[in-house]
Specification:
By secondary structure, the chain is an alpha/beta fold. The chain is built from 13 helices and 13 strands.
Length: 396
């Protein structure tokens, strides 16, 4: 028996709001960023619904945004190992063919000793970054391999290689920290040795093309090729769509069968777009990035402000009258660490049939005492389906 066998066609609307990097942790000086933010609307939903803390891939495992979102959509992120390059390509609408190689990269700066100074080139703006990517597209090539660069957003770059015998089993070039040199391309399987050597040539050509620019190098990670996954329609009987704006998250959504609605500029516009398309779908996914960006930069006040900005829009979400609303994150991004972390993610479910627990505020320590308990992130979607009365009883 599979879950799909229990799904009925009862009309219902499920909404998932992902506050990227929402989670954090309390320390000796502070509560978490969420705990110290002023969030009356989120607190009210927590008091009216059920709360818990979610683990995207299991205790102690720090996940990237790709695995974190796959779990939110009901997929086991340890079963479906997807590179960030694939997801960014899909989100940008790139025609990624079987055998192509894709990777997500950061424009970055180096010091005189070739150590990484800034992994995001000062969070370079779109206009300057796009000019750099255009320079790479025009001036960088490899023998016998088609090379393509696409600007994603800010410092983010997509690389696509097309040619014979490419293999994605290559380690990341991004060391994920400063003060050390970029990593050398390394094959993780014998079949990928040629690909690693091609990436060495590519790195040298990019550095030459970037002389005198606002970035010195591109740090690539998440090498992958074309994949097919079973869709959310097949697995859960849903008609899903997303209003997310960032290409990577749109890529994950597309990979699991969501329709990609037009890109808008803000979370408020995402909610308005959901209202416009409300009757076309029974599952809608919205995404807000600012808390994650502040977490990566270690900017505590900015992360608190980003959470408070989300809270101000919660009444607009509630006004849509979803049968079930889930608010959570793909991972934690505590400002103490300036990175993703393994800490459990605060989670709330709200809706008529969700039930109430004793939690009265939305924060990590409060949610840990909630009725949902400590759960796997991938179990949230079945709980949303059940709370929308979309699942039949199993057995006699």
């Amino acid at each position: 028996m599979e879950l799909r066998d229990l799904v009925n066609d009862r009309p219902a609307h499920l909404v998932l709001l992902v506050v990227d990097g929402l989670g954090g942790y309390a320390d000796a000086r502070h509560g978490s960023e969420l705990e110290e933010a002023t969030t009356p609307n989120l607190d009210q939903l927590a008091a009216e619904g059920s709360c818990g803390v979610a683990l995207p891939a299991g205790p102690g495992i720090t996940v990237g945004s790709g695995p974190g979102h796959l779990a939110l959509f009901g997929y086991d992120p340890l079963e479906y190992d997807l590179g960030r390059g694939l997801l960014s390509a899909l989100g940008l609408g790139v025609d990624l063919r079987p055998g192509d190689l894709a990777a997500r990269g950061n424009l970055a700066t180096l010091d005189a000793d070739d150590n990484v100074v800034d992994r995001r080139a000062g969070r370079i703006d779109d206009a300057r970054a796009r000019a750099i990517v255009d320079r790479l597209e025009a001036g960088v090539s490899l023998p016998d391999v088609e090379v393509s660069f696409r600007h994603v957003s800010e410092h983010r770059v997509l690389l696509v290689l097309r040619g014979e015998g490419l293999d994605p089993r290559v380690g990341d070039l991004d060391p994920q920290r400063t003060g050390v040199p970029p990593l050398a391309p390394t094959a993780t399987a014998p079949e990928a040795e040629r690909t690693a050597r091609l990436l060495e040539q590519l790195d040298a050509a990019m550095r030459e093309a970037l002389v005198g620019q606002d970035a010195d190098v591109v740090l690539f990670r998440g090498f992958d090729t074309h994949h097919d996954l079973p869709s959310m329609q097949e697995r859960f009987g849903l008609r899903p769509a997303t209003v997310a704006t960032y290409p990577m998250y749109r890529g994950v959504a597309k990979l699991v069968g969501m329709d990609l609605l037009p890109v808008v500029d803000s979370l408020g516009e995402q909610i308005a777009l959901m209202a416009d398309r409300w009757n076309d779908y029974d599952y809608l996914f919205a995404h807000e990035k600012a808390a994650d960006s502040a977490g990566h930069d270690g900017r505590r006040d900015a992360k608190i402000a980003a959470i408070e900005a989300v809270d101000a829009l919660v009444p607009d979400l509630v006004a849509l009258a979803p049968d079930v609303l889930c608010i959570t994150a793909d991972h934690a991004a505590p400002t103490q660490l300036s990175s993703h972390s393994w800490h459990p993610v605060p989670t709330l479910l709200w809706g008529e049939a969700v039930g109430r627990d004793a939690v009265t505020s939305f924060g990590e320590r409060a949610c840990a005492a909630g009725m949902l308990g400590h759960l796997r992130t991938q179990d949230l979607l079945p709980l949303m389906l059940a709370s929308a009365r979309r699942l039949e009883k199993y057995g006699a």
